[in-house]
Every structure is written in C-alpha cells, then in structure tokens.
Design brief:
The protein is mainly beta. The chain contains 1 helix and 9 strands. The protein has a domain of 138 residues: Beta Barrel (Porin). A hairpin with a 5-residue loop joins strand 8 and strand 9.
Length: 220
C-alpha cells in the first residue's frame, strides 16, 4: 500500500474518534465556555431593611488557559432588580419622615472571577470562585411626606402647611463590588452542563450593600 493510501486510511479512521472525543471533552478543559443564568437575589444587612428580594439574569464566558489546570477566569455581565419596602423612614439629619410608596433599585454588574473547577468527566462537579468588578446602581423612589411633617430643605413651606407632600428622587452611581461563589454542575449527554450557583456579593456604596444571589444556569 502506498504512503498516500496509508495516510488516507489513517485520517479516515482517526476523524470519527477525534470528533467523539472533542464533543465529550470536560468543559473545564475547553478554552472558552459560555454561560447564561437566571434566579433570585436577596438583600442582606442594611439593604434588607429597605428592599424586597428581587430577580437576577446574567451571561458571559469562562476562559481556560490550559486543559491540565482546572482554573478559569470568568467574565459575568448581569442585571438585578429590587423593589423598595413600603414604609416610613427618616430622612437626612432632621426628624423629617418620608412614606415610601414605589420605586426600584437596578444593579448592573460586570464581574471578573477566578474559579477553581472540580469533578466533571461525565460526573457531577462544581466550582469555587471569587472576584471583583464594577457595579452600577440606578435608584428611583417615589413617596410622600406625611401630613404634619416638615422638610425645610426640599420645601420650606411644608413646615407651615399641614398637607402631605409628594416627592420623587433618583440617583445613579458606579462603584466597585466583590463576590464569592460556589456551584454544583451537572453534565448533559450533549457535553454541556446545567449548574446551580449561590453567591455573596458586597457593593462598596455608602452605606455598603450586600446581596445573596441564587441562580440556575446553562454552560456550553
């Protein structure tokens, strides 16, 4: 058999094997892994005094430098939304009260996490991670100053007129954020994965805000 025929036969035999192996390579060994996720997020600390639990969606990619090292760098872009508790709160340094009626808190994050992956190879696995990034806060609140209250900053006349005064406030701010996360992942026959991830996220606003997101996601 000529060398050319030997080469053709070798390639013909190797191609199906190569395709089978690459389709079932563990995700942690792939150079780039995409993901999408959605779930709930709960405020903690001072944020828990002002906001209901909310929802979160995100997506991004994990980059692996070497299939022999189960470490990756994950880029995650997402958005979370919360609604304020309807309550009466003190404002400023004066004894003025405000009745919160409606509004929203929207957090947009871009996080960079180092993750250590374990398990896989057709079995249940997981990862542990931690990272840092930028978080943009967009807060809108509407409400009223109850009858008889006094706000000499926004409306000096409210100190003299015994009527409820409506108000609306909005602010936007971008600050640094930190997170730690842990996940369990389940392999699928297609070579992709589904995962369940819980995180702790701290945002360095003034005052600092803390949240615990829990999401279900898909990696491919």
């Amino acid at each position: 058999m000529s060398r050319r025929r030997i080469l053709i036969v070798t390639v013909a035999v190797a191609l199906p094997t190569f395709g089978h192996v690459s389709a079932h390579d563990p995700i942690a060994s792939r150079p780039v892994v995409g993901h999408v996720a959605a779930g709930a997020t709960a405020p903690r600390g001072e944020a828990d005094d002002f906001f209901h639990s909310g929802w979160r969606v995100s997506g991004g990619a994990t980059f692996h430098a070497s299939p022999a090292i189960p470490l990756g760098m994950r880029l995650d872009l997402g958005i979370s939304r919360f609604y304020p508790l309807k309550q009466t709160v003190a404002t400023g340094t004066s004894p003025t009260l405000a009745q919160i009626e409606d509004g929203s808190l929207v957090l947009t994050h871009l996080m960079f996490d180092a993750i250590w992956e374990f398990g896989g190879h057709g079995r249940v696995g997981g990862w542990l991670g931690a990272g840092v990034g930028a978080v943009h806060r967009h807060l809108e609140v509407t409400g009223r100053f109850p009858a008889g209250s006094c706000n000499d900053v926004i409306d000096p006349g409210s100190c003299l007129v015994n009527l409820a005064k409506p108000f609306e406030t909005e602010d936007q701010l971008t600050k640094i954020g930190f997170d730690v996360n842990a996940a369990v992942r389940f392999p699928l026959a297609s070579g992709s994965e589904i995962f369940l991830e819980a995180s702790y996220q701290r945002l360095e606003f003034d005052p600092a805000m803390e949240f615990i997101p829990v999401v279900v996601g898909f990696r491919w």
